[in-house]
Amino acid sequence: MRFDKKVILVTGAGRGIGRAIAETFADEGAFVAANDLSPDNLDETIRRIAERGGTAEAFLADVARQMPVRELARQILDRWGRIDILVNNAGVEPHAPLLELDAWDWQRTIDVNLSGPFFTMQAVGRAMRESGGGAIVNIASIAGRAHGLKDRAAYVASKMGLIGLTREAARELAAYNIRVNAVCPGVIETEMTAVLRQNEAIVAKWLEDIPQGRLGKPADVVGLVLFLCSDAAAYITGQAINVDGGKVMS
Known about the structure:
By secondary structure, this protein is an alpha/beta fold.
């Protein structure tokens, strides 16, 4: 197993892409620190991993706040002694026109989607520096590339910022043998897109722009995340890679 006894922190592991990442790393032998704000969702993730014979523990924390993140890292280090891999998956996506976007929704989006990865990379990066290195993957979005999203100003701004943060972190942390990359999913079949996927016209429009002719599944994202965290990607850092069926080719 590629990640046997490696310690990985996955934020937003209570559902969707985060849960799929946590489950698959556990299948590969990793010790999974699953983080989320919802205890019910986290319990379900831990239960599913246990049923598959994996090892995972739940860690409740709001990654948008610095002190809870520092405590989260401390708890994981107390439990396993190190953190080898960090996947920043936690995110929110409010829908509102720019002129109607509530200031609280704007700030919360920036706090979770951009400040959260900063806080976790800082706390976990210090631990990785002491242990000799590691791998970090930030889940961004094609919305942060050349493809904006209508009525998602906060989300687009946060994901563009996350890609920039990923590149700067990769530049600074390379000296400590820490690789940092971003994965940019397109439309993925998760709870976050469930409501919009009920609208056949919206789905049809999405499919018109996707050369592969289908929406993505969490497994499509997980495969790239595992590769970027593996030894096979030892010479890859500072990249933002799309997983979108060809929708954005840049």
